[in-house]
Design a protein that fits this description.
Blueprint lengths: L9 H13 L3 E5 L4 H17 L6 H27 L7 H16 L2 H10 L4 E8 L2 E8 L5 H14 L5 H7 L7 H14 L7 E6 L2 E9 L6 H15 L6 H11 L5 H9 L2 H11 L13 H8 L1 H17 L10 H19 L4 H13 L3 H8 L3 H12 L3 H9 L3 H11 L4 H9 L8 H21 L9 H6 L5 H17 L8
Helix pairs in contact: 1-2, 2-3, 3-4, 3-5, 3-8, 6-8, 9-17, 9-20, 10-11, 10-14, 11-13, 12-14, 13-14, 14-16, 15-16, 15-22, 16-22, 17-20, 20-21, 21-22, 22-24
Length: 506
């Protein structure tokens, strides 16, 4: 098909922008990979990169994509060919016998093999995604790689590291049986030309699929204004005062098994503002007390030592950050409280025997967006300009944050948490609450809870669609469709509304 006849439709363009905006995978699947489909995939890749302002990578990555698609299509054709020849592709001797005539036999009758591939459900799938300042391009096919194929591919990858030019590769490598061998080496050399290494290219097998993956850092355009703003963010965090000494005193008492709850309550009471906000937090919707708790000793006993420590950290952090903000984001505190409650309710439902998870989920829910206070403190008009630019360009707030400063509110929040010596688990949750799969295993459970709570709140507001829910999170919490997500959302919203009057003066 002539390239001029291939166009990106308005619907496809909208999907590309949504994929970039929400950092979700953009997927195209084919069973026969006709030339028109390959041209379309290349055009989608080109459009994807242009939207990301990565035009300098287009020609390199189009070549790489063509190579990966061809290899995947050939791998599927091999499976059909070997079956029809009654050869076991996983047997070394059969493999060599089959490959001796594979190219000649299939070239003469390729349409037959393509039809058989489709009938067998053998696909080639392109997946593109931008996430955490990285571009991921994957080509998958459901023909699991044999040992011989795996060995040959990695032999080419190792050889590619030895060459310094295309000419040297052409002169040194010719592989008659595996036509993609030379192409793979050229692809690696191309990636090296744009400053990447073999670590940016991966070949692996998972769940019956062969996956070839290219991961590239997203090179965000920066100018002097962006550099200046980034420095301001760092400077503002460096200038943050220490948390009240009360926090350290309480931590020491909690660590001492001889301490009485009345001793802890007395230290908290010595800081009247902190004590008042702590009681307000305990009397909030999260605890849904039948009668308000006005006694600190009773509060410590009810919440528990671990819970008091986390709540004190949350309250003290917000007390310190709020005065810095000239123009607070509307609804930010209400959002954080709602996320905290939902995270706690999720913990109660899915981890009923793990009170520590419930306590951590609530505290991390309160703190997950603290990085936004630094954005607002450094640039009080950022929210207004962000909304205008996001509407114009179709970006999410997170993407805009990266474009403006090179960091997200999760990054900034984790920097604040590190400065104030938060527990490592809380630091990880704050940093990864939008990408829970990147959290370390020790923090992943709470990160999943906060991610889902945050997602449900966004879904309620109409900011997020059900299809954007992380697949792993949906599986972990047995959410099998939008109806189930809606039911969960409505249930938690009713609980929040029933006690929302307690937030009236927050």
């Amino acid at each position: 098909m002539d390239r001029s006849t291939v166009r990106v439709s308005p619907e496809s363009m909208a999907k590309i922008r949504i994929a970039i905006q929400d950092e979700i995978p953009l997927t195209i699947t084919t069973y026969t990979l006709p030339h028109s489909t390959e041209e379309y995939m290349n055009l989608i890749l080109e459009t994807f990169l242009r939207e990301l302002k990565q035009e300098h990578l287009i020609e390199y990555l189009k070549y790489c994509l063509s190579e990966l698609l061809t290899n995947s299509k050939k791998a599927n054709t091999k499976r059909i060919y070997f079956r029809e020849k009654n050869l076991n592709i996983f047997d070394e001797a059969d493999y060599e016998q089959g490959m001796a005539k594979f190219k000649a036999d299939t070239l003469d009758n390729i349409e037959h093999y393509l039809i058989k591939q489709k009938e067998a459900g053998l696909y080639v799938r392109l997946i593109m995604q931008v996430r955490k300042n990285k571009i991921k391009i994957e080509v998958r096919n459901n023909s699991e790689m044999t040992y011989e194929e795996y060995k040959r591919v990695h032999d080419k990858l190792n050889r590619a590291q030895q060459y310094t030019s295309m000419d040297q590769a052409f002169q040194s490598i010719l592989d008659d049986s595996e036509g993609g061998g030379l192409g793979l080496i050229i692809m690696i050399l191309m990636l090296k030309k744009v400053g990447l290494t073999e670590e940016n290219f991966q070949v692996l097998c998972e769940r019956g699929e062969t996956i070839t993956r290219i991961i590239l850092p997203l090179q965000v355009f920066t100018n002097q204004e962006i550099v200046r703003l980034t420095q301001q963010f760092v400077k503002k965090i460096d200038e943050l005062p220490l948390l009240p000494a009360t926090i350290k005193q309480v931590e020491r008492l909690i660590a001492d098994p001889k301490s009485a709850m009345s001793d802890i309550a007395a230290v908290i009471a010595s800081n009247a503002e902190l004590a008042a906000d702590l009681l307000k937090e305990i009397n909030s919707a999260a605890y849904a007390l039948s009668q308000p708790c006005s006694n600190l000793t009773s509060a410590v006993a009810m919440v528990g030592l671990r819970g008091i420590k986390s709540l004190l950290l949350s309250v003290a952090s917000l007390q310190t950050l709020l005065p810095l903000v000239v123009k607070p984001r509307p609804g930010l505190r209400e959002h954080s409280h709602r996320v905290a409650l939902y995270a706690q309710l999720l913990a109660r439902q899915f981890y009923p025997e793990r009170r520590e998870i419930e306590e951590d989920a609530y505290a991390c829910g309160l703190l997950h967006d603290i990085g936004k206070y630094i954005f607002d403190a450094v640039h009080p008009d950022l929210l207004d300009s962000a909304q205008a630019v996001c509407k114009l360009r179709g970006f999410s707030i997170d993407v805009f944050e990266r474009m403006v400063s090179g960091v997200t509110h999760g990054d900034l929040g984790s920097m604040i948490a590190e400065k104030w010596n938060y527990p490592k688990m809380m630091i990880s949750v704050i940093r990864h609450h939008h990408e829970p799969d990147l959290a370390p295993s020790s923090a992943r459970t709470v990160t999943y809870l906060v991610y889902l709570a945050d997602f449900i709140v966004g879904y309620e507001k109409g900011d997020l669609e059900a299809r954007l829910l992380d697949v792993e999170v949906a599986h972990r919490f047995s959410i099998q469709g939008e109806a189930q997500l809606r039911s969960l959302s409505e249930h938690y919203s009713r609980i929040y509304s029933a006690v929302s009057k307690r937030y009236a003066n927050l």
